Automatic annotation (TrEMBL):
Family annotation (Pfam families): FancD2
Protein's cellular compartments: Nucleus
Full protein name: Uncharacterized protein
One GO BP: homologous chromosome pairing at meiosis
Primary subcellular site in the record, as a coarse category: nucleus
Entry similarity comment: Belongs to the Fanconi anemia protein FANCD2 family.
Region (Disordered): 203-227
Compositionally biased residues, Basic residues: 211-227
GO MF terms held by the record: DNA polymerase binding
Keywords: Isopeptide bond, Nucleus, Ubl conjugation
GO cellular component: condensed chromosome; nucleus
Length: 227
């Protein structure tokens, strides 16, 4: 239980903000909005939570384009969420109801109208808005993978909703990405599942037979000995 409380606290402190219906989005490079909300459980004062995605992405993009060392906690969001849901699943026999608020909570994203006028944006704005699409799509994919096993009908409905939203964002990405050929996606090595990765060059795959070649003489060597 201590591990569950600790991982939950770390994730919330790093990536989740308290949100009020009267709150204004942070003032950053792009106009932001609170998007993709599936929750109706705000308290009497209208307080809820929101994933602080776009502001973190924009900060990371600024560090990257200014040639600073790209060390941002955004990189750890996916691994931390995976750890959190694995701990919860292990402690509660697969039940994720303790963290299901993350499935339905809104996220900070650029306003969708930005992508309608994408060609008029500056290069920095184009790159940042595309990165927001990448991270939003990946976040929805993580949510789908985490909660697809849940039996609760309401959670199933939200999973299908996230799937529709992810497909919609992928369509936007396919439309705007070719308009910014200078954009270079951020590295995603941290998101690699090593168990499904290809073997390294020269590695011997289990069950395969190694073919022995004939041993030749060392170039320039004399005598009948084999090297």
């Amino acid at each position: 239980e201590w591990l569950s409380e600790h991982t939950t606290t770390v994730f919330q402190d790093s990536f989740v903000l308290d949100y009020n219906v009267d709150s204004q989005p942070p003032e950053v490079l792009l106009a932001l909005s609170v998007s993709y909300n599936m929750e109706d459980d705000a308290d009497e004062e209208g307080n809820a939570i929101v994933l602080n995605l776009a502001p973190m992405v924009l900060k990371a993009e600024q560090l990257r384009t200014n040639n600073h060392e790209y060390m941002d906690k955004l990189i750890t969001m996916t691994p931390q969420f995976r750890l959190l849901r694995m701990v919860e699943s292990h402690l509660n026999n697969g039940d994720l109801s303790n963290i299901d608020a993350l499935l339905g909570c809104p996220i900070y994203t650029p306003e969708l109208t930005i992508y309608d006028k994408f060609e008029s944006l500056s290069q920095a704005e184009q790159h940042s808005s595309i990165s927001c699409l990448f991270y939003s799509i990946n976040w929805f994919r993580e949510l789908i993978n985490a909660f697809v096993t849940q039996k609760d009908p309401e959670l199933k409905k939200k999973v299908f909703g996230r799937l529709r939203q992810m497909i919609g964002l992928q369509k936007i990405l396919c439309r705007v990405a070719p308009l910014s050929p200078s954009y270079i996606p951020v590295l995603a090595v941290f998101d690699l599942d090593a168990s499904q990765s290809l073997p390294a060059p020269g590695a011997v795959v289990a069950g395969s037979k190694k073919t022995a070649g004939k041993k030749g003489r060392k170039k320039g060597a004399t005598g009948k000995g084999k090297v």
